[in-house]
Amino acid sequence: DQDSALADGHVERLLTRIDAAEAQGVNVAAAVPGVVGGAPVLNDPTGGPFDPIQSGQLLPVGAFEAIGEFRTDLFIDAVDSEFTVRAREAGYRFLVDEGLAMEHALGEAVPLSVFGRPLVILGKQRHVLYHAPWRTYYMVRNSVWLSRQYGADHRGWMRRRNRKMAEMVLWGSVLAPDRVAQLRAVRAGWRDGRRGTLGRIRPDVLGRLGRRA
Asked: What is the DSSP letter of 30?
């Protein structure tokens, strides 16, 4: 991604992981860094990464023949999650290098305030992870679509993903400086996700979301 920065040796380290696993007969979908944006990636019960983001992945080209390519009609969010589900359904695994870190912006940290005054707890200014309303729309829409598409066969994985996504959207919407636009984005995303409307956000929807002040 444009907001990611790879460490020296990133590709070589992941390639080593892939080569070692494939030598043991493992079908590898991708290898990923273990730390993204300063936070360790979440693991699933098998020890692999739970829902690895697309940025920073090293993918064997041959895996696309069995799994298929990324779905461009999701457009922005959940493209990696949908690929992860299909890869695991096809019997492919994701590898993680726990000691490899990648710089990545997971959102914009916006200072919180109460009645116009900065919110300070334990001597630290508190922030909320902010996403523009149009990004919130994609997050909600594609998560709803993903649940309807794969939820029946991947209940545990989907519940965990939806819980994490809901926490991010809830706090990001309620505490954002443009909360009205955020709530409109949530409503529009929920509606279009249930309708199966994918692709780029429609101009009329984008116009109703307005711009961050």
From this structure: E
Average pLDDT over residues 79-98: 96
pLDDT at position 161 over 90: yes
Give the pairing of strands 124-125 and 108-111. unpaired
Q: Which pair of tokens denotes residue 41?
A: 């990636």
- Closest-CA residue to 21 (of 58, 69, 64, 54): 58
Note whether 96 and 48 are within 8 A (CB). yes
Structure tokens at 193: 């996700």
Q: How many C-beta atoms surround the C-beta of residue 43 within 10 A? A: 13
List 102's β-bridge partners, or say none: 36
Entry pTM: 0.87
183 burial type by CB count under 10 A (0-12 exposed, 13-18 middle, 19+ buried): middle
Q: What whole-number distance in Å separates Cα of residue 100 and Cα of residue 102?
A: 7
